[in-house]
Amino acid sequence: LRTGFPEVIWGQDKTPEQITKIMTAMRDRTHVVMATRVTPGKAECIQQILPEVQYNDRARICAIVNQAKMPQRLGTIGILSAGTADLPVAEEAALTAELCGFQVERLWDVGVAGIQRLLSNRHVIDNADVLIVAAGMEGALPSVVGGLADCPIIAVPTSIGYGASFNGITPLLGMLNSCAAGLGVVNIDNGFGAAILAGQILRTASKLSNQPL
Amino acid sequence: LRTGFPEVIWGQDKTPEQITKIMTAMRDRTHVVMATRVTPGKAECIQQILPEVQYNDRARICAIVNQAKMPQRLGTIGILSAGTADLPVAEEAALTAELCGFQVERLWDVGVAGIQRLLSNRHVIDNADVLIVAAGMEGALPSVVGGLADCPIIAVPTSIGYGASFNGITPLLGMLNSCAAGLGVVNIDNGFGAAILAGQILRTASKLSNQPL
Amino acid sequence: LRTGFPEVIWGQDKTPEQITKIMTAMRDRTHVVMATRVTPGKAECIQQILPEVQYNDRARICAIVNQAKMPQRLGTIGILSAGTADLPVAEEAALTAELCGFQVERLWDVGVAGIQRLLSNRHVIDNADVLIVAAGMEGALPSVVGGLADCPIIAVPTSIGYGASFNGITPLLGMLNSCAAGLGVVNIDNGFGAAILAGQILRTASKLSNQPL
Amino acid sequence: LRTGFPEVIWGQDKTPEQITKIMTAMRDRTHVVMATRVTPGKAECIQQILPEVQYNDRARICAIVNQAKMPQRLGTIGILSAGTADLPVAEEAALTAELCGFQVERLWDVGVAGIQRLLSNRHVIDNADVLIVAAGMEGALPSVVGGLADCPIIAVPTSIGYGASFNGITPLLGMLNSCAAGLGVVNIDNGFGAAILAGQILRTASKLSNQPL
Amino acid sequence: LRTGFPEVIWGQDKTPEQITKIMTAMRDRTHVVMATRVTPGKAECIQQILPEVQYNDRARICAIVNQAKMPQRLGTIGILSAGTADLPVAEEAALTAELCGFQVERLWDVGVAGIQRLLSNRHVIDNADVLIVAAGMEGALPSVVGGLADCPIIAVPTSIGYGASFNGITPLLGMLNSCAAGLGVVNIDNGFGAAILAGQILRTASKLSNQPL
Amino acid sequence: LRTGFPEVIWGQDKTPEQITKIMTAMRDRTHVVMATRVTPGKAECIQQILPEVQYNDRARICAIVNQAKMPQRLGTIGILSAGTADLPVAEEAALTAELCGFQVERLWDVGVAGIQRLLSNRHVIDNADVLIVAAGMEGALPSVVGGLADCPIIAVPTSIGYGASFNGITPLLGMLNSCAAGLGVVNIDNGFGAAILAGQILRTASKLSNQPL
Amino acid sequence: LRTGFPEVIWGQDKTPEQITKIMTAMRDRTHVVMATRVTPGKAECIQQILPEVQYNDRARICAIVNQAKMPQRLGTIGILSAGTADLPVAEEAALTAELCGFQVERLWDVGVAGIQRLLSNRHVIDNADVLIVAAGMEGALPSVVGGLADCPIIAVPTSIGYGASFNGITPLLGMLNSCAAGLGVVNIDNGFGAAILAGQILRTASKLSNQPL
Amino acid sequence: LRTGFPEVIWGQDKTPEQITKIMTAMRDRTHVVMATRVTPGKAECIQQILPEVQYNDRARICAIVNQAKMPQRLGTIGILSAGTADLPVAEEAALTAELCGFQVERLWDVGVAGIQRLLSNRHVIDNADVLIVAAGMEGALPSVVGGLADCPIIAVPTSIGYGASFNGITPLLGMLNSCAAGLGVVNIDNGFGAAILAGQILRTASKLSNQPL
Ligand SMILES: Nc1ncnc2c1ncn2[C@@H]1O[C@H](COP(=O)(O)O)[C@@H](O)[C@H]1O
Ligand SMILES: Nc1ncnc2c1ncn2[C@@H]1O[C@H](COP(=O)(O)O)[C@@H](O)[C@H]1O
Ligand SMILES: Nc1ncnc2c1ncn2[C@@H]1O[C@H](COP(=O)(O)O)[C@@H](O)[C@H]1O
Ligand SMILES: Nc1ncnc2c1ncn2[C@@H]1O[C@H](COP(=O)(O)O)[C@@H](O)[C@H]1O
Ligand SMILES: [Mg+2]
Ligand SMILES: [Mg+2]
Ligand SMILES: [Mg+2]
Ligand SMILES: [Mg+2]
Ligand SMILES: [Mg+2]
Ligand SMILES: [Mg+2]
Ligand SMILES: [Mg+2]
Ligand SMILES: [Mg+2]
Known about the structure:
The structure is a homooctamer.
Chain A: E1 7-10, H1 16-26, E2 32-36, H2 40-49, E3 54-56, E4 61-65, E5 76-81, H3 87-99, E6 103-107, H4 115-119, H5 122-127, E7 130-135, H6 141-148, E8 153-157, H7 169-176, E9 183-185, H8 191-208
Parallel strand pairs in A: 1-2, 5-6, 5-7, 7-8, 8-9
Antiparallel strand pairs in A: 2-4, 3-4
Helix pairs in contact in A: 1-2, 3-8
The structure holds adenosine monophosphate (4 copies) and magnesium ion (MG) (8 copies).
């Protein structure tokens, strides 16, 4: 992956043994080794072998963190989610961002059908340097946020919904067609990828700040 | 069609001669004969034969109206559109509703990426007894309106957009998956059908108001 | 949700514990707290903690009803279903409507391939102030009803069928293209949303009946 | 094609010269040479070279008929269409059937949103030995007819409609999922193929009638 | 269903108790009561309550047959299948046809990639009065048979295959676009519907054979 | 492109001037410069500037050939097409193969609904070292050929057909799901790509023939 | 739009008169007014009324630029395109970025089938602070660039291709599924939106550089 | 199958008993009998009955090999895979090729986001006479390889990925639209078919090498 970010293992199609083995091999190379899409059952097996592994069950992430080497990076990532069912994806983004060393501000349950709740929490939008917005069903939240924010926005469609939401196709298409210009969209449920893109944006900012105009 | 509503001709696949002939045949039976999806060129031909035909080029509707027999019906239909490109569909709905005898209040260009403009025109939402909301691209407007209104909402996806809007499929899917409960959705670009459904809702209200609980 | 209607919990992606907790928190605020998409197993768990919860296994709804505060509302909602397999969706609509305080008239198993059964039960159509029509497979029932009724119709596609019914896409598309003007369509299997829209239509009627022309 | 039926040319992607040449080459081999999907302009060119060619502009068919050798075949084919816009497809079926030597009974404009018109013309259904039913939009007519008829039914989806009718996909899917068992479906707009299948059914009947049980 | 044919229950979404109850209720009305899509486990439960029920596990059909009243009908239905995996669908068609009283001739495993096996069994095609052809994957068999047979052909796409066969969509589309004119297509895996259509074709033949030209 | 093959220009989205300019620039580098997807009108313009350009209107290819440097390559490419409408694609393949220096044997109009014509021309299949098979509509021809041939087969779906052929999607899916193992499929209408793959296969053969086992 | 960026008009569905009118109204409010998707014919009409309008026919953009007020912004945007046919989209991005005040470095024709050309131009990737990568057909370029670059990447699918490229759906899906983590994807052909997102990223960097860690 | 290649059983929809029975029946006819898509559980059952069966759990293949009769064939098949999750498909291809008697060279984990790893293993590409390239997600690897190799390439899309990879549709479409001319594509996850096509290509080469130019 990009230099300076955690080593990451895609945990979904791997056994606990495979994950444990890769984590062990990678742990000395870097300040964070993490595995995504780990179920509670798998996590328990992993922790039995490697007790220093921490597990966040909402984000479905296992990690070994070397706190001493942990970088502290410039910039705040605001993360919004439309509904409570979008939380696993939003938390995957939030925790990944934190493990990269960024400040994260969370704002859950601000779906567009209750616009007042979003408006009365505008400070989260205003404080952020980059925003990640996760939404399922019709996926309208990034468009509304796009009209309120003055920073880059990363939209994450989630597979939440039923019937004609087609496991995330509907919010994906909605986000790609947003009337708010300048959203970047990632794959369905890809909270991890959204965090890496956000992190890359902020790292570039750090580098740029040392360059003269 | 439903009793008391205008006679309507689907003008798209018909020649001016065919439309003229049907309008002539129907005009004595009812207070309004109208044809939808009529291009300016076709309208001109029709008006040369039947000078009493009125043409609205935004709504693409030709009509012969017998003002004397025109009913005045209970209730106001609020019609909102997200972008200027949605106007032909929104106006098809608005004019059809007016030709049915209803009061119409229009609110154009209140797309969700500029939420303040919608919020500062809330009175249109509050005054309406039924709302018709037309939007293309991601089709998010009905969800936001659904959280603000306390009346039935009819959502009309439009074929406006490009790329992954797929000629209206994206807003159609978005509206069907709205997180605001209780929207009724009609076919892509079907402003006419939305108006008829709104009219039917208000006519039912009139009938009900004479019934004791 | 809309004022005066039940508080509703989407039960599908929640544990019995989560549902119980939300029901307990909401029960004093309103006359009805209900949860949809609750399986029999989950319902049993819920009832063990909250014995006053009622469960309807056809509609898959759990509810705590404060009968004393229950409103009695103007208007009758007719609910039709095409096949017996559509019943869970049709009953979700029916029970939701009843929990909102409306009169409901049911007519099951009137699929279009046996048109006589529908015609010999026309009184249900004629008595209704709003109609909800649930159908799977080819979803043709709302079109036929649309030609017989003179009130608003809400069409609910169901995921019933196999092969090229594509879990409800086929009836959804059929309903959106109905040759009967003025149907409002909701998401696949969304009996709940249909009831809320029907309820909103009738509540608007009540409000309107106090307005002078 | 099948023995004893007309020789047929698919006219859509051919020039008038190509069609004329093939018709001339085939005319002596058989009692009927016909070309389908011929536009009026092409037909005029063809008739200038071969004046004995007859053109039916509704069915878009050119034909040279040797009336003397024309067979007279057993059985009546009833052909129904839902809307006036479905007529080109329905007439393609009707004229093809007649050029095969069958008796044809037409019933136009019996869409399901006006079920009474269909019911008051039931004799066409009752008299037919095979039925061809053409419908666009939601394509519901074959299902209703399937519940009324006691003979084989061939369903032809047409590309009539707009928005979510997707050029005939919606009625095609509707017909394949009909709740009336035992419909055979052909390709979108394939009136010709429907007639050939109907003809094959009736020819088989003729052959069978000479077989002992 | 159509007069004189078996009473049929769609067994897939029903419990053994429900199936048993309906079979019991229907059995005196008709010579055959049958249930389709019955798994072996369900069948065993049904047979424990109703020992006279016969079960065919390939066709997945349960039936109570009153052999005395069984009609013997004119005509032979040839049934072909492309691969062994298509057998459940082909046998559903075959057994349904036999329970309607028709003569059935089976020809299994004649997929188009081994054309010689089909050609060396041409007598099945030549002897049949109607053909039912089941195929999955690319669904090419009906086209080839269409060029060899001189009788009506009913094509049944099956959900057999993987990857881009999309659970039967690929053979369904292939059959609808067959270059052999005059195939009638039914829903994916709908062996039952194919048999009913074949039966209807032969019954019509019987009726016709008593009519003078 | 691959060494030793012609330089190729994709002519569809280029003006005659652009094509002329690129051809002129490339002509000295190689024995053949060719442009595909050139309409007759464009070809005429090109030939006015560069009279040595040859145009084949069936294959829609313009080429400048330096006959002296033309290689003569080992192997015969058999090219089959199902219908006459598939010829432009089949000829694009055939001419490209010839301009690469290969022997080509053509067999047109051997669609599967007339299997005898294919079988009585088996020698083309038996003589070929590689086969290219173009078919539209249901795209069944490659499967049948796959059962008869003992050489590599390249399947080219064409956009020929209407309705549910979806501009070539149906034959594309059919070919990918062929029950004949070992077909390689190229993009819809990509006769050019099929020829290049065939040529690469034969060139590899030439190279291999000099290698000891 | 976002503060400090040009005012933009979507030119595709507007007449030259409408565009001229909006440009005139906006020109005093800002340093740049621009219209996208303007054909050469429309541009000529616009320039006849407003001679100070500049037109770039590759980018299809009309603009009035007040050079004096033009900001000079921090950061370089690298823009890559896979094929020459992708240029209109890539240039729409490039010119929009320049009109926002950013430095742009272009690298055209570096499609993945000629990987050496991309590798020998790595300095463009290394110098950029943000990258925009446009590609049609299979859309693979962003994945390869993602493995080479250490800055944020915005992927733009183009509608270039034919057959199974489905007007840009194929590269869109490819980019969303990139094995390179952290790409942001925009709508098909949306060069404008990509530039705005890139600009927003760089503006955020500027703001951040004044913040202490 | 093609002469001289192993007899193959599609193991996925068969019981261990069925597989054992077919293997026993076929084993004397040929030097290799193999079954694909066999799970470890099934393999164990098979081996209990037939201990001479060898099982490769990565390739999911069971085989009985008569080493004495095993042919040794001319040519090397290079097999590349993009990610570790693509290995079952890549190994299915590799083992099938080896059981046909070919030399196989494997190169795993050379996805395009790490292009250097691919480039530093170019010798595998350069040594191969035919290449099989398996990739999931965006499926870009075959395009890059196509620009580096001078031999025929067979592309195998895998169902690896999530969200908008749609179980392999995305890499399938990507491969069909490759900007590298002359790839042959097989069905999703069809490692077996790719090996058979590769084998057929090399066998043709052997035959050709005995032919004079
Ligand atoms: N949750 C996630 N979503 C998307 N990609 C991921 C995720 N977790 C890990 N990955 C990617 O998977 C790669 C590791 O894949 P593997 O080598 O199969 O474990 C990482 O480098 C990431 O690019
Ligand atoms: N713009 C429209 N959108 C949808 N349906 C329409 C529209 N205009 C007319 N119709 C329907 O078309 C019917 C008339 O069709 P026709 O008899 O072909 O003129 C009317 O009764 C309406 O139901
Ligand atoms: N295997 C089958 N495929 C398609 N339709 C069937 C099948 N079995 C039964 N049916 C239909 O289902 C109806 C009975 O449905 P039900 O009343 O739900 O049992 C019958 O009248 C048939 O039309
Ligand atoms: N008919 C065709 N079908 C597919 N690809 C083609 C065709 N003709 C040319 N090409 C490809 O297009 C490339 C040239 O594209 P261009 O540089 O835009 O002219 C060639 O190298 C071929 O790979
Ligand atoms: Mg949402
Ligand atoms: Mg919108
Ligand atoms: Mg139905
Ligand atoms: Mg219809
Ligand atoms: Mg098949
Ligand atoms: Mg074909
Ligand atoms: Mg590309
Ligand atoms: Mg890949």
